[in-house]
Design goal:
Number of helices: 7
Shape: globular
Low-confidence stretches: none
Bound molecules: biotin
Largest sheet: 8 strands, mixed
Strand content: 25-35%
Radius of gyration: 17 Å
Structural class: alpha+beta
Helix content: 25-40%
Distance between the termini: 38 Å
Length: about 250
């Protein structure tokens, strides 16, 4: 088995690894541990995740031995209104980690990471009463995807060669330790790093949310993390969206 213990030895404080052979959803397991008083920094890795959850109630399939499915417990000191920024922090950490393996990822606001125009990682942030769970799923070593996914999903291996799962995990945690610090501090610096990798800027996009559908040209991301959209109705700052589509994809 891959040597996750060695990778965990290099985690910065306060992060530490708990491995479970089989889980339904790492987010759910972390939530239970958090309710029981677990301190922040817990990283729970599911070697087999049987019922992974994505955003908007979608399923997330993590192919065992080829992908990473893990959740990080945080107890942020920042006001809850700032916690959605953790999704941006996690996306940036994943993207910067992928770059350390020679890849050129893009960030699709708010929290997908793309390689070669396809999704390679997804992030699901959930809040409890006094804690946040940052769930991250990454396609690392899959060689191919089933036909229904192959147009939209990819892996680090497909885009640039096989990688060690523990090394990828270690690299993400090291970067997340930095990025997660910025949500209540120098968030503008983090947005700058996201903008360098933003795949939506300058593109015609469609946003779907509870308020309806919006179309327009993405003009980047504001200093506080909102998506900037320009269309016939003027200029809008989008706080959140259920679905973001790039036209022509
Ligand atoms: C998305 O793109 O819709 C988000 C996918 C998030 C998947 C991860 S895998 C680890 C953690 N546990 C879950 O059940 N979901 C997240």
């Amino acid at each position: 088995m891959d040597n996750f213990a060695a990778a965990a030895a290099g985690f910065p404080d306060p992060f530490r690894l708990l491995i479970r052979d089989s889980v339904q959803s790492t987010n759910d397991d972390v939530r239970v541990l958090a309710d029981g008083g677990a301190p922040e920094g817990l990283v729970l890795l599911g070697l087999k995740q049987l019922a992974g959850r994505g955003r908007r109630g979608a399923a997330w399939f993590a192919s065992p031995g080829e992908s990473l499915a893990f959740s990080i417990l945080l107890r942020p000191a920042e006001p809850k209104a700032l916690w959605p920024r953790l999704a941006l922090a996690a996306g940036l950490a994943v993207a910067e980690a992928m770059e350390s393996f020679g890849l050129t990822p893009g960030i699709k606001w708010p929290n997908d990471v793309w390689l070669g125009g396809k999704k390679a990682a997804g992030i699901l942030v959930e809040a409890g009463k006094d804690f946040a769970v940052v769930g991250i799923g990454i396609n690392v070593n899959q060689e191919a995807f089933p036909p229904e996914l192959s147009e939209v999903a990819t892996s680090m291996r497909i885009e640039g060669g096989a990688q060690s799962l523990p090394d990828v995990l270690g690299s993400i945690i090291a970067r997340f330790a930095n990025c997660s610090q910025l949500i209540g501090g120098n968030f503008g610096e983090m947005v700058g790093r996201i903008l360098e990798r933003c795949v939506l800027t300058g593109k015609s996009i469609t946003l779907q949310s509870a308020g309806g559908i919006e179309r327009g040209i993405c003009e980047g991301i504001s200093d506080s993390g909102e998506l900037l959209l320009r269309n016939a109705n003027g200029f809008q700052r989008i706080l959140q969206a259920d679905e973001v589509r790039v036209e022509g994809r």
